[in-house]
Write a structure and sequence with these properties.
The chain has helices at 10-20, 34-38, 46-50, 55-63, 77-87, 95-108, 119-130, 137-143, 160-168, 182-185, 192-203, 210-226, 246-257, 264-285, 301-307, 322-335, 351-357, 382-395, 415-433, 441-460, and strands at 25-27, 146-150, 174-176, 178-179, 231-236, 288-293, 295-296, 315-316, 340-345, 370-372. By secondary structure, it is α/β, with parallel strands linked by helices. A five-stranded parallel β-sheet has the order 4-5-6-9-10, covered by helices on one side. A three-stranded parallel β-sheet has the order 1-2-3. A two-stranded antiparallel sheet has the order 7-8. The longest helix is centred in the middle third of the chain and has 22 residues, at 264-285. The radius of gyration is 23 Å and the shape is globular.
């Protein structure tokens, strides 16, 4: 993992070091805490920064036979760190091996390999830095050359810390909310009615009917917009669509308000009509709409009952997405015109499906208006990233790709952008070496810089960003 890590020839080396390396980051989807950013959270040790809440690492530790006590249990932070240090040598071939060492190198200047022998010394070195000045949450973001952070926020969130950051005005990174209304769409999920009540309280709109519900959702969308939000995000674990009318959905919503579970067909109708409504709002306001599709969550009921969601017990789903996805996009297009849309699937079998569907809805003079989102979650690795980019290149315009995001809860995860950028340069250089594209380094460098930053800057139109960077 030297300076030319993942760069396999002279063309890739030139593209990375001369064009990609120093580009800023627009992190348009992540799970960082705006509260921790506002407070410039500091970390007492590397375990808190690295292992608290990181289910990627937890899964690897469990696979290595580590007892839960040393993962999410009551073991000391040093014991948990040591358990991770013992696991790391076993992760060779997994991106966690590379990410871990990139984070040690880039943030802490440590080039040693992490293992049982090196763990005590690395623990001391990293912790002495983490607890010194310049290693708070804001500092780590700035060290990574980030220009925009889009957090993930429930419609009922007050956005208190986004507003405080804007009022304070001393942090030169934009921290913006993303609208994540999943709890308002999951009409059959436990807690739905309680969430609707909170939506009523937060929006100030009485929700005694479906019209009231839509008015409340619109009020929250417009509030997010006033705080700088320009992105929505939808976890669509099962892609579904059904033709319906508002009259039908009004009756379905009335049933739900009475505490009844609705049929699967009615759930499809409710979600489809509500998504059409939201899509129209996003289009009106110039937002980008994100769909994250085909996750199979909370597979292990016993551990879900102990630890709750997002603890490492999810997997790839294999539902069919082509027809319902195309029909939903078409319905929004007919109703109000599609907003800018980014589509991700957790199942790589869907790469070519998405690559072709996005081509059916491009237009309106917007370069890459409908995007095939970057390799996500379980695909967030060398082969997954390359496969996604090759599908996009084969079937659409790779050159208009808006690139990488972190999708992480860790302030140290920005090295994943470096990992991604090295692969972008390696892929383009492979085409050059094969004689498939000309060796026009300046032109190819512009493409690289577009994928790293400039395409996203143009796509999202976040306020305050300067002209394209070269």
């Amino acid at each position: 993992m030297d300076d030319n890590f993942l760069l396999n020839n002279e063309t890739s080396i030139r593209l990375y070091h001369d064009y990609a390396k120093n580009m800023p980051i627009i992190d348009y989807h992540c799970h960082l805490s705006p509260k921790e950013i506002y407070e410039n959270k500091t970390f007492k040790n590397i375990t808190e920064a690295w292992l608290y809440g990181d289910h990627y690492k937890w899964r690897a530790m469990r696979s290595n036979g580590v007892e839960e006590k040393y993962i999410t249990g009551d073991a000391s932070d040093y014991e948990k760190f040591f358990a991770w240090a013992k696991t790391i040598p076993m992760t060779i071939g997994n991106p966690l091996y590379n990410w871990t060492h990139l984070e040690l190198q880039r943030f802490f200047g440590i080039n040693d390999v992490l293992n049982e022998k090196s763990a005590p010394e690395i623990w001391e070195k990293v912790n002495s830095l983490l607890t010194s000045e310049g290693f708070g949450a804001r500092d780590l973001i700035q060290k990574s050359n980030v220009h925009v952070v889009c957090t993930t926020d429930d419609p009922i969130d007050s956005l208190e810390y986004h507003l405080l950051l804007q009022e304070e005005g001393s942090f030169d990174v934009q921290v913006l909310p993303s609208f994540r209304p999943d709890k308002g769409l999951e009409i059959n999920r436990d807690g739905y009615l309680q969430w609707v009540q909170k939506l009523q309280d937060t929006s100030g709109v009485e929700i005694s009917s479906y019209d009231g519900f839509l008015q409340a959702m619109e009020a929250r969308v417009r509030f997010f917009h006033s705080v700088g939000g320009r992105v929505s995000d939808h976890a669509i674990d099962t892609m579904m669509f059904a033709e319906t009318s508002k009259e039908e959905v009004i009756k379905i919503f009335e049933e739900a308000l009475q505490g009844k579970k609705v049929s699967l067909e009615d759930e499809k109708k409710y979600k489809s009509f509500t998504m059409k409504f939201l899509g129209g709002l996003y289009s009106e306001l110039g937002w980008a709409m994100q769909f994250h599709i085909n996750a199979l969550r909370n597979n292990n009921t016993r551990m879900f009952n102990i630890l709750g969601p997002d603890t490492g017990y999810d997997s790839i789903n294999d539902d069919q997405i082509a027809k319902p996805l195309a029909r939903l996009l078409d319905a929004i297009e007919q109703e109000s015109g599609l907003p800018k849309t980014i589509i991700y699937s957790l199942n790589a079998k869907d790469n070519d499906v998405i690559g072709t569907i996005i081509g059916s809805f491009q237009g309106d003079g917007v370069p890459g208006k409908i995007q095939f989102g970057t390799a996500w979650w379980f695909n967030d690795n060398k082969s997954g990233m390359l496969d996604q980019m090759k599908s996009l290149a084969n079937l659409g315009l790779f050159t208009r790709f808006i690139g990488m995001l972190t999708d992480s809860r860790s302030f140290l995860s920005y090295t994943r952008h470096e990992y991604f950028r090295r692969l972008v340069c390696s892929l383009i250089a492979e085409w050059v070496e094969n004689g498939e594209v000309p060796q026009d380094i300046e032109f190819l460098g512009e493409i690289v810089q577009g994928i790293c930053y400039n395409n996203a800057k143009e796509y999202f139109q976040f306020k305050g960003l300067t002209d394209p960077i070269s």
